[in-house]
Structure formats: structure tokens, C-alpha cells
Specification:
32% helix, two-stranded antiparallel ribbon, alpha+beta
Length: 73
């Protein structure tokens, strides 16, 4: 058994089932006849960790919190 095997054996099951979602804040802009994705360099990117039972509502809440979004408007 190597060090990685030792680590995987010691992790709780819920951590083994976690998945990473890479999110990049920005907007799509139509320039001429071409769509370009323009990254917001201030807000940047995040890695969001989702569990097996994560819901869409939880994903929205995490994203709103991470990016300080006000969804009331």
C-alpha cells in the first residue's frame, strides 16, 4: 500500500464521493457574428465541491455566497 492508498482508506465516505465543479465568473458577449466569453478578472474562478446528494438549490446558494451575488433583483 502506498501513501495515496493510506489517504483514501482514511477518508470518510462522504469525502470520497465529492466532485469538483470549476466555475469561472464572466459573461457571454456577441461581437459581430461570434460569441466570446469574457472572464471577470476581479471575481475570477472558484472550485465548488459537491457531494453525491447536493441539490441545485445548494449549488446556487454556494455560488451566490462565493461571488457575493445579490439575487433579490
Amino acid at each position: 500500500m502506498n501513501c495515496l492508498d493510506d489517504l483514501l482508506v482514511s477518508l470518510p465516505d462522504d469525502l470520497l464521493m465529492m466532485r469538483q465543479l470549476h466555475a469561472v465568473y464572466g459573461e457571454w458577449l456577441l461581437k459581430g457574428f461570434r460569441w466570446d466569453y469574457v472572464v471577470d478578472n476581479v471575481k475570477g474562478a472558484r472550485i465548488i465541491f459537491l457531494g453525491e446528494g447536493s441539490t441545485h438549490a445548494e449549488l446556487l446558494a454556494m455560488t451566490q455566497e462565493d461571488y457575493n451575488l445579490d439575487m433579490s433583483t
